[in-house]
Amino acid sequence: MQEHNILVVDDEKNILKVVSLTLRDSGYSVDIAQSAEEALEKFRLRAYNLIVTDLKLPGKSGAELLTEVKSLQPDFPVIMITAFGTIENAVEAMKRGAFNYLTKPVNPDELLTVVREALEKFELKRENQALKSELRQKYTFSNIIGKSTAMQEVFDTIRMVSKTQSNVLIIGESGTGKELAARAVHYDSDRAGGPFVTVDCATIPSGLMESELFGHEKGSFTGAHEKKTGLVEHADTGTLFFDEIGDLDPNLQKKLLRFLQEREILRVGGSSRIKINVRIVAATNRDLEQEVLAKRFREDLYYRLNVVTIRMPPLRERNDDILLLAHHFLERMNAVEGKLIKGFEDNVMDLLLSYGWPGNVRELENVVERAYVLCPNIAITKKYLPPKLLGPAGDERETFDEMNLLETEKRLIIKALNNTSWNQSKAAEVLGITRKQLRTKMVNLGLLPDAESIKKPVES
Length: 460
Ligand SMILES: Nc1ncnc2c1ncn2[C@@H]1O[C@H](COP(=O)(O)OP(=O)(O)OP(=O)(O)O)[C@@H](O)[C@H]1O
Ligand SMILES: [Mg+2]
Prior knowledge:
The protein is of the alpha/beta class. Helices cover about 50% and strands about 15% of the residues. It has a 5-stranded parallel β-sheet, with helices on both faces. Strand 6 and strand 7 form a beta hairpin. Magnesium ion binds next to helix 7.
């Protein structure tokens, strides 16, 4: 977890002390200021994540502090502390953008809960905004999104190859964006005005493939009632994309090779050759070199196709892209469906990052779309993720949050105290902490009144 800096503002020393001790004890880094003026000076010098301020201060009030902070950073979270009887003022402050308010005497549990909420909301907002602006900036290339080094290299290769006439082979696991890359090669080239035609080698039956590819003359075979223009001819002046090239049948591999050498086609049953000007892009999720070794794929064709290789990295090798892509898909859903979901809760982002994504970007796309449809909240919560993302420890994770840690700590301390007849020194020894630490914890957990606040009752 990253360190959080909190600025606590109060002119009453005992409140400053209780609040800052409670926060420090929970691992926050705390600065203090005794007036709004001092707070503003510190605020300008150091990056804080949160301000906790008394409403009533000697010079400028806490409300004025709030207004000035908001004018510098509109989203910055500020928590107000207010004396009983001045709650109207606190409500007024809420209307002006305070995150929440606490009443005196400050209850440590309540303080920690509100602080945690404020930090989480703010973090979520900031992270989501940062991702959104990144998306708009440099991380999109021809509908492909990626800021990882691996994807930036893919973009560079596409930019380079698109300026040439070379054939391109795109390899990568299923769902890594091979088709997107093929389109990018086309739309980034000077062929962009020409057609982009896909030949789906996995689904066109091999018996029909030749006439699908090269066309046929009327009456050239039974059922050829009309003359037909093939896909290769359709792609003239543009790009011809052979998807799943590893599935192309050996006979057609030979015919394709011939076309690549001669750049001419002969329709089935035809007699005149037609010159065709296309760039070939092929994609496969098979290991083509392995296929060549196993004699299932022609070596000569492999070398013809593989002038430039673009390898689409699996998603698990580019963690930097996961959240960016997730946000992209969320934004797209927002635009299409009209519902507004602003982002993902922190723990959802953690889960997205730790999952292995065997189905790559396509799987992430499905996960986000499903969560979008099911989730009624402003941010996607864990509940709407498929179980596979939660992992084996999914349920334990939930019960072991900080709230429960505090509860557990309280129970252990009470038990130690009971076993030692509330002798603090002995209890501290049992717990393995100093007596001073024990007392601080007892104050924070409400087991012991703060000594100072008893001597000097809180006024406001
Ligand atoms: N980098 C990316 N940015 C945005 N969308 C992406 C990206 N990569 C993949 N997608 C999306 O994921 C889905 C799968 O991409 P695509 O069809 O290009 O993958 P593929 O590698 O061709 O998969 P397959 O091998 O299964 O055919 C598509 O909806 C595509 O728009
Ligand atoms: Mg594909």
